[in-house]
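Sample entry (97 residues):
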Amino acid sequence: MRVVAFHPEAETELIAAAEFYEEQTPALGHDFIAAVRRGYRRLLKFPNTGRSFGRRLRRLLVPGFPYGLLYRADGETIYVVAVMHLHRRPGYWRTRI
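Predicted structure, serialized as tokens:
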């Protein structure tokens, strides 16, 4: 059975983005979390769904938000390296690999 694990900094990014959206519009933070959750549930069934992103990683876009889940599939674990904004700070996550 596959599991999803978040890098500690990816988890922090997820929470920060949800808090930001919640401050903008009530319930939007919840919608963001739900979209991310749907994404990683999809990865549990189909780990190669995301597009290749370099040699070892894949990226799955979060529908409705300018974010992507940057991840790698290692056997039964989907390891989320970053919950990355698509238009900010490219490559900041590289030290997490």
